[in-house]
Amino acid sequence: MKKFLISLAILLFLGIGGVVVMFVVAGKDIPPPHTTDLIPERTELPPEQNGYTYFLSATNSLYWPTDASRLTCYLKETPGDVRLLQEILSRNTNLMDAIGKGLECKRCVTPEVTGFDTRIPYIGPWINMGHVLAFKTRHDRLAGKYSEATSTCISLLQFGDMVQKDAGLVINYLVGISVMEQGLTQAQDLACDKGVPLEELKRLANALAELAPLDRCLIRAMKSEHKAFANLIDQIGAGKVNVSEVTAASETVDGSVFKCKHYPGYFFLKNKTKSDYANFVRSVIQNAPLCYADMKRDAGKGYSAKEINSLNQLTRPNAVGRILLALCIPALENLLEKKCKTECSVAAARLLVACNA
How far apart are CA 187 and CA 179, in angstroms? Predict the structure, then answer.
């Protein structure tokens, strides 16, 4: 019995020692990654020269009723609620003026996102502002006011272009593309309207030709996204934010088990997490100028919510980092497809305008 107890003690000692060694070795982080190639370009503008100043002001004068969803069909070539349409157009004249002043600036540089708590309340209103411009474009075209319709359509295209051209985050880029796609739809409808004069088609063609390349804008947005992610990692590492707060709004990634302020090295490898995310960002940047068929889109493999939420994954090294990567990477994987589809819409609009001209 004595020998048995001694052997058992030795085994327990070796087992505990092995676990400790495993935690120490597996919990050792890598050196900080070199990310000088991912530093985003940023230009600071005086408020009076920044379209953001006027677009933000426009959100304060935006009239958008709760039942505006009834007008969605109006943009799909079907009748809508005429009374509600007239109300939206008549009560948004100040909005049109503010957007016009913003477009004169040619640039829209939004405030930098410096942390997890940075608010971006203008996102939703800007999409609705695009809807208002789209409503007015279609309304004027159907009324035979082709000059007004063309001018509003050009404003809609320029508004979306300015938002995505200086996107401070990927969400800004997507909002810009969403607004621009509304303009592209209206441009195609204008091009196919037999009553549109040639001079209006020429104006529309010039506006379409001036749209910024979507790949360069995507690269800028991805670099800004990388900086925001790195800042988030530093905030978590400093105990200012916990993972459960970050994943609270997610329907796919569960980080509720990590509610503490500080995480042992085994569970959170800051530099490893930053390095993995940086490599993903680089893959998107490398693919951005390519045709869709030539892209290699496997950089986000292994970070699906199903894999991360399993108990096995939660006990592996860098569980916290993997949760953060699973939250951010899958949400960005369709960016390249979105960019290619919008490029196709731009090309289609240019072609339709040219053919009808």
Answer: 13
Say how far apart CA 291 and CA 275 lie, in whole Å. Answer: 27
CA–CA gap between residue 340 and residue 292 (Å, rounded): 7
26 or 188: whose pLDDT is higher? 188
Going by the DSSP 8-state scheme, the letter that residue 292 receives in this structure is G
Q: How confident is the model at residue 247 (pLDDT cuts 50, 70, 90)?
A: confident
C-alpha 182/C-alpha 188 separation (Å) is 10
**Non-local CB neighbours of 317 within 8 Å, separated by 6+ positions:** 26, 27, 266, 267, 269
- Say how many Å lie between the first and final Cα of the chain, rounded: 99
Q: How many CB atoms lie within 10 A of CB 357?
A: 14
Q: How far apart are CA 266 and CA 23, in angstroms?
A: 6
- For 261, the token pair is 């302020």
| pLDDT for residue 15 | 57
How many whole angstroms from its chain centre is CA 98?
Answer: 24
Which candidate, 208, 189, 173, 91, places its Cα nearest to that of 134? 189
Per-residue pLDDT, averaged over 235-264, amounts to: 77
Within 8 A by CB and 6+ apart from 60, the residues are none
Structure tokens at 314: 């939660």
Q: How confident is the model at residue 305 (pLDDT cuts 50, 70, 90)?
A: low
Would you state the structure tokens that stand for residue 231, as one six-digit string? 């800042």
- pLDDT of 46 higher than 50: yes
pLDDT given at position 18 = 47
pTM, full prediction: 0.88
> Which residues lie closer than 8 Å to 90 by C-beta, 6 or more apart?
none
